[in-house]
Amino acid sequence: MFLAVHATVGALLGNVVVDPAASFSLSFASHFLLDMIPHGDQYLYDQYKRGDDVNQAVVRVLVDALITAVLVFFLLSNVTFVSEAGVIAGIIGGLLPDLLVGLFEMLKPKGRGWTGRQLLKFNDLHMRNHVFLIRRFFRGDISSKFGLVVQVLVLGLVVRWLL
Ligand SMILES: [Zn+2]
Predict the structure, then answer these.
(1) 51 C-alpha vs ligand 1 centroid, how far in Å?
(2) How many angstroms separate the CA atoms of 78 and 125, rounded?
(3) Which of 2, 10, 58, 154 is the most exposed place for a label (fewest CB within 10 A)?
(4) Half-sphere CA count of 161, side-chain side, radius 13 A
(5) How many whole angstroms from 108 Cα to the centroid of ligand 1?
(6) Which residues surround ligand 1, an ion (CB under 5 A)?
């Protein structure tokens, strides 16, 4: 899912849970639950993996990261949270899985060093989780357009809830 969705759900969990360690862990777990829901980015990811339209995938991630940064800045400066530390821990926990996947994509570790092997394992786990429901219960992912609409709606609802 979009980084923006993971970050705002993390903020929401942080505002409810308050304790930073609990908020971090719950948000980290929420990332995997959210990613399991079909959300229309599997085609783009497969394309990227095949080496077609790599630029489109990179632009998408950059735009998403920019929107996420603006949104997080907006929320932290406009909302009075129960615990700002809890909210920040939630945002970091929610984003961390994709940051690790991004690190994997950038470094492309060959699996020799310990860190490389762990990154590789984590990336595999993340990707298997991403297609788990799609492969088992659905006939492929939903369309990218529908996925975009669904994710923007979820994002809107979460931000509305926080304000
Ligand atoms: Zn993810």
Answers:
(1) 20
(2) 36
(3) 58
(4) 15
(5) 17
(6) 35, 98
Tokens at residue 32, please?
């995997």
CA distance 80 to 31: 24
Q: pLDDT (tens digit, 0 to 9) for every residue of the chain, 163 residues total?
A: 999 999 999 999 999 999 999 999 999 999 999 999 989 888 888 888 888 888 888 899 999 999 999 999 999 999 999 999 999 999 999 999 999 999 999 998 886 789 899 999 999 999 999 998 888 888 788 888 888 999 999 999 999 999 8
* pTM (global) more than 0.85: yes
How much distance in Å is there from the Cα of 48 to the middle of ligand 1?
15
Q: Where are the domains of the chain?
A: 3-158
